[in-house]
């Protein structure tokens, strides 16, 4: 019979489940955690792992959903469903469950992103806000309903308080009365049997008329209810009885209401407990720095940087473990306390954890398999009560394992064949491993026997492994070395500890030459391995540094490209704005030149205007060529006629602005330049040296060639535009020409709404203006003025 729980305890699964339970938020999910059993169904294990993985993802992005005061109310729900009344504490537990259901449901809605395998559980949550509010508003504590539970209850409690107040007023009058207070033991009002009384001296019993409800222990004091308040106290008792009946009615009503929703609440509670368990798994995974392994059913195990989850994270050594891929039997050798047993337990425990749907403390891309049976013989099973030796106890377990093992089994055997004659023990161990291998089981076994090392070297599908030992420090490193049999370190350790060289040499003489050669080969193999590992570490280090440098260079390159593109775009936009502005200005000037030419018919004047027009077009073309191809301008080569120096007049290429050099070049070739109000640092390659004398000559030549007409035109083009144009007194031709010029000026100035004053008169000028506006491409709408704007004497125009 498969003794699963015994094997699970041997691998300490119960301790991992206890850690899992500590992460749960309610008692029921803690119980579920402690009672988890490894599942041997491949598809179910994958589904469990997917839910844990999704919970881990959600908690990493949005933190885990909070559960507060969640208790099992299943019994209360079933009781209410049958029609029984619930206590106030049970109703409060139901209210807490409803609050948690709504809270977790709302939390999931706030989580953005893709669907998860947990959504089915979240969909089972059925919030009931109305019932939750009803319970919260009705119940103050486990012993008291709120006054707002019903109108009748509120009225009764108000009447009770008023009646109590009247009784206290009458009793206060008695205890403060000079004639009656002298008969009292104390001037206070107290209660006996729910009725208000006063403490009267026993010798003055007849002075205070009323009912005696109690006496003091000494008999010196009688607690009397004065006759004046008997009726009032009776009234209070009657009201309290009504209050009790009303409370019972409300509780019955609330219980029935809960009973009508018992099934969805119970279903939601069970889903809530299961959700809490998966987030407990995610929390444990976070604490263990765990990952999701690849899960197979082929029996393959490939754990990368595996860590035993019960060893202190600061002390545990990560190791790589392989089994079931290139070989099905792994023989682990090494010194005592070297980590052999920990390695076996790590293989078994991580397998069981994966079968429970727990993420594993391993590196990414690790692989684990699902087994039908995990069979274990670990530790000293010697039993004094059963009169069994260590060897006998181990053999009893192994006999049981041999009966249960099959092709879907993982078998872990610690110190196989130990506790008896080494020769017989080794032979027996080899025979057991061969039989288990014949069954198709995956086997991991530890041993000290050299015969088993040799067997592993000579047998297909069997691999040696060893736990590394540092002879220099006399300490194990706990690293598992796959493919390398462990060598004996007895002589080296003894020598390091100070044992006489003569004794060690004599001991070596007692070992056969064949075994000595075998150990020498192992020693050479181990030395070669260490040297190769050091070389590999150096190569890996250089490779990492190279990749890091390449990555940094690529990032810098991308950053530089983006910066350059952004600067080029800014410069291009600025150049385009300049060109657009100048084009608009030139178009206006060209129109003005055409108007002047129409009005002036003299040949000489016409030639002068034509010359100015040609010069202006030439300047526009030069400006376009200089401003538009920014990239070409950046790449042109420039050699200054002399070195730059402080005070030089320069042109900043990127800005397209003139400036003054404020500093000499620094080590990086950068200088500080004042361009207008901007003070900036630029490379020397972005500067062009300007010659002051040459600039003055060019300015004089340009002014001379343009002449007075150009200056006049320039002055006219720069006049300011207002929002009103007065055409009164103008002919139709003059008015239309002025209107066109005015609209062009407004477009350049950015004015959208204008007022054209044409007067009322005969309406001829108004009709001509409106007819012209109707066909003008820059006009969006126009209308006559209204009262306060000038009425029919003005036209209000909206430009595009």
Describe the protein's architecture and organization:
The strands form seven sheets. Strands 12-13-14-10-15-16 form a six-stranded mixed beta sheet, with helices on both faces. Strands 20-19-18-17-21 form a five-stranded antiparallel beta sheet, with no helix packed on it. Strands 3-4-6-5 form a four-stranded antiparallel beta sheet. It is of the alpha/beta class and 800 residues long. Helix 2 (13-23) crosses helix 11, helix 3 (27-34) packs across helix 11 (262-288) and helix 6 crosses helix 8 (129-138). The longest helix is centred in the last third of the chain and has 87 residues, at 513-599. Helix content is 53%, strand content 16%. Strand 22, helix 22 (732-749) and strand 23 form a beta-alpha-beta unit. The model is unreliable at 381-387, 629-635 and 701-721 (pLDDT under 50). The chain contains 23 helices and 25 strands.
């Amino acid at each position: 019979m498969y003794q699963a729980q015994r094997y699970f305890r041997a691998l300490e699964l119960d301790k991992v489940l206890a850690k899992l339970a500590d992460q749960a938020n309610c008692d029921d999910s803690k119980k579920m955690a402690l009672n988890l059993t490894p599942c041997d169904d491949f598809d179910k294990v994958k589904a469990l792992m997917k839910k844990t993985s999704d919970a881990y993802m959600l908690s990493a992005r949005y933190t885990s959903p909070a559960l507060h005061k969640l208790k099992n109310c299943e019994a209360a729900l079933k009781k209410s469903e049958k029609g029984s009344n619930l206590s106030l504490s049970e109703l409060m537990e139901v209210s807490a469950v409803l609050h948690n259901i709504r809270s977790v449901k709302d939390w999931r809605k706030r989580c953005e992103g893709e669907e998860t395998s947990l959504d089915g559980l979240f969909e089972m949550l059925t919030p009931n806000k109305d019932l939750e509010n009803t319970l919260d508003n009705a119940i103050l504590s486990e012993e008291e309903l709120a006054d707002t539970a019903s109108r009748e209850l509120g009225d009764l409690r108000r009447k009770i308080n008023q009646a109590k107040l009247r009784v206290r007023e009458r009793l206060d009058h008695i205890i403060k009365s000079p004639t009656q207070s002298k008969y009292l033991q104390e001037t206070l009002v107290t209660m006996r049997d729910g009725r208000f009384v006063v403490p009267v001296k026993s010798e003055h019993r007849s002075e205070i008329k009323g009912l005696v409800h109690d006496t003091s222990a000494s008999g010196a004091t009688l607690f009397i209810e004065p006759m004046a308040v008997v009726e009032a106290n009776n009234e209070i008792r009657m009201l309290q009885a009504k209050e009790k009946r009303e409370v019972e009615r409300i509780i019955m009503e609330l219980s029935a209401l809960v009973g009508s929703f018992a099934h969805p609440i119970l279903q939601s509670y069970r889903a809530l407990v299961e959700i809490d368990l998966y987030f407990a798994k995610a929390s444990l995974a976070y604490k263990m720095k765990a990952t999701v392994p690849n899960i197979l059913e082929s029996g393959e195990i490939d754990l990368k940087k595996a860590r035993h989850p019960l060893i202190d994270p600061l002390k545990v050594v990560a190791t790589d473990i392989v089994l079931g891929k290139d070989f099905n039997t792994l023989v682990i050798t090494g010194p005592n306390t070297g980590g052999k047993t920990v390695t076996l337990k790590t293989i078994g425990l991580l397998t069981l954890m994966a079968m429970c749907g727990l993420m594993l403390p391993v590196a990414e891309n690790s692989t684990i398999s699902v087994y039908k049976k995990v069979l274990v013989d670990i530790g000293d099973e010697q039993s004094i009560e059963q009169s069994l030796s260590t060897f006998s106890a181990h053999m009893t377990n192994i006999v049981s394992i041999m009966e249960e093992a099959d092709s879907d089994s993982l078998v872990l055997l610690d110190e196989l064949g130990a506790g008896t004659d080494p020769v017989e023990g080794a032979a027996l161990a080899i025979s057991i491993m061969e039989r288990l291998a014949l069954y198709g089981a995956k086997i991991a076994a530890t041993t000290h026997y050299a015969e088993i090392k040799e067997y592993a070297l000579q047998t297909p599908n069997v691999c040696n492994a060893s736990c590394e030992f540092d002879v220099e420090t006399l300490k194990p490193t706990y690293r598992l070395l796959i493919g390398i049999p462990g060598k004996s370190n007895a002589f080296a350790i003894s020598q390091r500890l100070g044992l006489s060289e003569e004794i060690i040499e004599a001991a070596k003489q007692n070992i056969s030459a064949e075994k000595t050669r075998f150990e020498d080969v192992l020693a050479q193999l181990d030395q070669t391995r260490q040297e190769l590992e050091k070389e590999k570490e150096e190569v890996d280090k250089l490779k990492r540094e190279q990749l890091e440098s390449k990555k940094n260079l690529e990032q810098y390159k991308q950053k530089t490209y983006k910066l350059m593109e952004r600067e080029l775009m800014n410069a291009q936009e600025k150049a385009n704005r300049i060109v657009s502005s100048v084009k608009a200005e030139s178009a206006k000037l060209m129109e003005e030149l055409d108007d002047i030419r129409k009005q002036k018919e003299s040949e000489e004047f016409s030639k002068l205007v034509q010359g100015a027009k040609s010069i202006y077009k030439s300047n526009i073309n030069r400006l376009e060529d200089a401003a538009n191809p920014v990239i070409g301008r950046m790449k042109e080569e420039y050699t200054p006629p002399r070195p730059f120096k402080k005070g030089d007049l320069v042109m900043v290429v990127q800005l397209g602005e003139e400036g003054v050099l404020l500093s000499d070049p620094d080590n990086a070739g950068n200088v500080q330049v004042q361009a207008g109000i901007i003070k900036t640092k630029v490379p020397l390659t972005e500067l062009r040296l300007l010659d002051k004398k040459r600039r003055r000559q060019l300015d004089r030549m340009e002014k001379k060639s343009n002449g007075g007409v150009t200056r006049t035109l320039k002055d006219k083009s720069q006049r300011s535009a207002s929002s009103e144009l007065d055409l009164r007194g103008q002919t139709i031709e003059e008015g239309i020409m002025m209107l066109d010029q005015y609209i062009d000026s407004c477009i350049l100035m950015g004015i959208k709404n204008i007022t054209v004053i044409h007067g009322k008169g005969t309406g001829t000028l108004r009709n001509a203006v409106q007819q012209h506006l109707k066909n003008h491409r820059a006009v969006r709408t126009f209308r006559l003025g209204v009262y306060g704007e000038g009425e029919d004497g003005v036209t209000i125009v909206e430009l595009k």
